[in-house]
UniProtKB/TrEMBL annotation, chain B:
Protein's organism: Wocania arenilitoris
Keywords: Membrane, Transmembrane, Transmembrane helix
Transmembrane regions: 21-40, 60-84, 111-136, 151-170, 177-197, 251-269
Protein name (Swiss-Prot/TrEMBL): ABC transporter permease
Lineage: Bacteria, Pseudomonadati, Bacteroidota, Flavobacteriia, Flavobacteriales
Keyword Membrane: yes
Domain of life of the source: Bacteria
Signal peptide: none
Xref: Pfam families: ABC2_membrane_2
Amino acid sequence: MLLIYNLVTKYTEYRHTLITNLVDFFQHKKPHILEPILTINNLTKKFGYLTAVKDLSFTINKGNVYGILGPNGSGKSTTLGVVLNVVNKTHGDFKWFDGQTTTHDALKKVGAIIERPNFYPYMTATQNLKLVCKIKGVDYSKVEEKLEIVGLLERKDSKFRTYSLGMKQRLAIASALLNDPEILILDEPTNGLDPQGIHQIREIIKQIAEKGTTILLASHLLDEVEKVCSHVVVLRKGVKLYSGRVDEMTSSHGFFELKCNNQSELIKLLEKNTSFKSIKEKDGLISAFLNEPIKSEDFNKYLFENNIILTHLVQRKESLEEQFLQLTDNK
Amino acid sequence: MLRLLNLELQKLLLNRTSKTLIFVSFVLPLFIILLSSFKIPFFGYFTLELGELGVFNFPMIWHLVTYFAAHFKLFFAIVVVSMIGNEYSNKTIKQNLIDGLSKKEFILSKFYTIVFFSLVSTIIIFILSLCIGLYYSSYNEFNIIIRETEFLLAYFVKLVAFFSLCLFLGMLVKRSAFALAFLFILFILEWIFYGIIWKFSTEDIATNIQNFFPLKSIYKLIDVPFLRIAATKMPDNQEFIHDYAVHWHEFAIVIGWTILFILLSYRLLKKRDL
């Protein structure tokens, strides 16, 4: 009895959150009061004949973790370069915060690392960070505090050129955190690192995100974005394909993975059924993509009634990777 | 302004190479003192003993010392081009801008550093000349000592202008070695143009036009003092009477170039995608 009672309450709770989420979605309600940190309007950047970013618009609001996804050369770094004052825009505009401050003053409230960590090789970690303090107008007391966060306190007096790539990248994060930024921008932070280094960086990012810092993470690594981001902007060849919540990225109903002893019969049957939009067979595993929601038990029953007995049945949603490939390939 | 200067000084003084070069560019001019003890034999006709010659008399000494000391500017010129080259090769220029330095502040921090070191160098030369002068000079009246101190101002302007040119070349080619090569090419080009103009007109016109070229105008600010030294030996010889003074129009040309170099560097950085 108790078990059933528990199940029922769990279910009602689940349904409740589901419904509120849905209502929020349809009324475009957001849990936080919207406070824009970065607004980009119709931004275009051309390098000669090549259009690196085309008519891009999106807004970054306080408190969310954003991802910019796109294959290599899709304009992620260029977009970040423009808003970070190192690349000149061709058209369009962008504004930081309320648009009242100049870009370089706004950047003092931003922490950013792009591509590779850039520091003076002949200076020690402390000296490098003090230099950044001077630029940003931050007190030196922050230096040790931030070195501690990224775990470099022991090596603080070693010259930057003696650091491993992972340590360099962690120093870059410490440097970006010096001013307790309103937004942390990370461009491919785990690029070129070994698994241990990747893990360390991700842990640091997670800690920072938990403290409520807004994060903008550009990456081509999907699981990275999937693990930390709540919102995502997908780019391909400088064009925005999608922008919104990660979990609303596709309206797909998922697919079934099937196996049985009589594969050809099964495929024939599925092809006749209008509930499926496409059937794929690979390595003896049939993937049937749904047009409409079907429960696995109903589906199993339906097959059984048609004299097909499954040896394998899994209902899955596409991973972000599959969704991403669909988005970037099909258009 | 102090913040920007402080920023650049940290970058320079923590770098061993630039620290050494800065040190050398300040210490080497001190060896001008050695000049005073030189005895130069002139093919057996007579022996030039500079100390005894009266070249270290005020006000002549200002001219002589600033002229020689200015040659040591090349060491600091290497520092200037490498401070730009390093920012590009380490990509720290990009990081500086991302950290919230504006492009204008970036150029200004370099320019302030140039002005700062030129000033330090001028002060050192001032003290050096004063010491040598007080030791050797036959005239020690205050009025005579301060006469022709415009050579110090000329020295300062000369350094600032030359380093601004280096700054611009550094910004233009992004690599220190290439920037120095460009400096040499510019030197040759100026003489080639001089030659071309001379061929199609007279030597006077060519010289007058060449005096407007960047390197020549910077060099011309403090004239070669040898004839003047000779003139002190033979005051009656008309050939040696030259115009050695520092002129305001020479200042104007050189300051004009300085402003142009700094503005061009800023424009270059502003237009460039990093």
